[in-house]
Design goal:
- There is one protein chain.
- By secondary structure, the chain is mainly β.
- The chain contains no helices and 4 strands.
- A 4-stranded antiparallel β-sheet has the order 1-2-3-4, with no helix packed on it.
- Strand 1 and strand 2 form a beta hairpin.
- The radius of gyration is 13 Å and the shape is globular.
Length: 63
């Protein structure tokens, strides 16, 4: 493993994220990165497993 680049314009935040599991809605504080006005979860809100910081996992802030 090696570091290719350190991103300077990323901020770590904890966001209260709501997920729907079956017919129930749950929410949990979730470690996220804020990048270019978007929130990217770094772990899943329902069971805490780590996930990759990818644009495909982005949640628009305030939505």
């Amino acid at each position: 493993m090696k570091i290719l680049k350190v991103l300077e314009d990323v901020q770590l935040v904890i966001a209260d994220i709501e997920v729907t599991i079956g017919d129930k809605k749950q929410n949990a504080p979730t470690l996220c990165a804020r990048h270019e006005g978007k929130i990217i979860p770094l772990n899943s809100a329902h069971d805490g497993r780590p996930i990759l910081m990818k644009i495909e996992n982005t949640i628009e802030e305030g939505v």
